[in-house]
Design brief:
CATH architecture of the largest domain: 3-Layer(aba) Sandwich
Number of domains: 3
Mean pLDDT: 87
Strand order of the largest sheet: 1-2-6-5-4-3-7-8-9
Shape: elongated
Largest sheet: 9 strands, mixed
Strand content: 5-15%
Number of strands: 12
Length: 411
């Protein structure tokens, strides 16, 4: 994009009162942004109101500074290494603009991208159509929910899928981490896409700065917001439409009844995309949103293979053994649960590495405190604490806030 073109795009997006819908009407009527600013007020009013037309004829405050900042950001000299992040700006109509996002009601006029240079090359496909899956959920997941997000993302990325999430605390971060665990330097598609609610010169939350650097090495960070945009509360629900719009399906791991994850799931459903949900304990608040989605028709999933089959995707032949029987392949002896990392167990299943001890049986599948466990087992407090610690160290039990313990699905 030439500097004059960039200036026109930034001016269009900065003009007060000109939202995405008005922007698309103007582009449809006049072509590129530079042509819009050559029109008379009368011509502009065929697409927008008189007040909007008047605003378009005036240069918005801050344009010159943002143009300089953005141009320097795009073209700053950086040492060329295998993991040097590249930067790009995609506008509506660009060849690399994600086609799935164009099919939604509100595609953003501009997408800022930061990530591995090989995914932003002219012949690259930064947003692979048909193989992007969103994984979203609670910012305060249970230990099991966080583990499920990580393992589903890892297993699905191993089949070639790109994992899309929002870089938030909790499930989002676990999904990005899981996808990165299966990333390879030779990958031709991004391991994960982080759709953020700030400008790409900022990372929110700040604690995710190291994670953002890793995503930039093996995937892409994506924003519709200009550089310098702070983490405003309204930006995060809005960016959820991009998470859903880029993805063939959305998997909700854990969610409270009124959470941003359910907004993403609703948007995915409205766009005709698949919605998946992992069930959990009836006593866990983080599971109630998933249960509501399942009642409304979301697909209940227990394994990564469930997602692949619903999306009618099969894994590459080299990855068939870890995923069991691939769709469309001849039958073979299924692998045992211990050799099948994609069969992600639910909290209702016992740990694979720890025998089903009497204490695990007493704990059951819902969080419980020491008093309840003591009543169920009759063990002395000291003995009970020692056994719980052993199970915790083995990965069979997780310690929750409030003095509660939860049985984990995997060791």
């Amino acid at each position: 994009m030439e500097r004059d073109d960039l200036c026109a795009w930034l001016r269009l997006t900065l003009t007060p009162g000109i939202g995405n819908a008005a922007t698309r009407r103007l582009l449809q009527a006049f072509g590129l942004p530079q042509a819009i600013f050559q029109q008379t007020s009368f011509a502009l009013q065929q697409c927008v109101t008189a007040a909007q037309a008047q605003a378009l004829l005036q240069e918005p405050a801050g344009l010159a500074a943002l143009l300089t900042t953005t141009w320097q950001w795009l073209h700053a000299a950086r040492p060329e290494t295998a993991h040097t992040p590249a930067r790009a700006l995609l506008a509506l109509g660009d060849a690399q603009y994600p086609s799935l996002l164009l099919e939604t009601e509100d595609p953003p006029p501009l997408l800022y991208l930061l990530g591995a240079a090989r995914f932003l090359a002219p012949d690259a496909e930064p947003f692979p159509r048909g193989t992007c899956l969103a994984i979203v959920g609670s910012r305060h997941p249970t230990a099991q929910g966080e583990g499920n997000a990580r393992e589903f993302a890892r297993a699905l990325r191993a089949t070639g899928m790109t994992i899309v999430s929002g870089l938030a605390l909790g499930v989002d971060a676990a999904a990005h981490e899981g996808a990165l665990a299966s990333a390879q330097d030779s990958d031709h598609t991004p391991a994960t896409l982080a759709i953020v609610g700030t400008g790409l010169d900022r990372v929110y939350p700040r604690s995710h700065l190291p994670l953002a650097h890793r995503i930039a090495a093996h995937g892409l960070l994506v924003s519709e917001y200009p550089l310098g945009t702070p983490p405003l509360p309204g930006n995060f629900p809005k960016r959820n439409r991009i998470i859903a719009g880029l993805s063939q399906g959305t998997l909700v791991v854990e969610a409270a009844p009124a959470s941003g994850s359910l907004i993403t799931a609703r948007l995915a459903s409205e766009q005709g995309r698949e919605v998946f949900a992992i069930p959990g304990s009836i006593h866990a608040p983080q599971s109630r949103g998933c249960h509501a989605l399942i009642r409304q028709g979301a697909k209940l999933v227990e394994t990564a293979q469930d997602v692949l089959e619903e999306l009618r995707l099969s894994s590459p032949s080299a990855l068939t053994p870890p995923l069991g029987k691939a769709v469309g392949r001849s039958k073979r002896t299924p692998p045992s649960p211990t050799s099948n990392p994609s069969l992600i167990p639910l909290p209702q299943q016992q740990s694979l590495d720890v025998p089903d001890s009497p204490l695990l049986q007493a704990l059951g599948y819902d969080p419980a405190g020491l008093d309840a466990l003591q009543a169920r087992t009759g063990l002395a407090t000291a003995t009970l604490q020692v056994e719980l610690l052993e199970l915790e160290l083995a990965g069979a039990v997780a310690r929750l806030p409030g003095g509660l313990f939860q049985r984990m699905g995997r060791g």
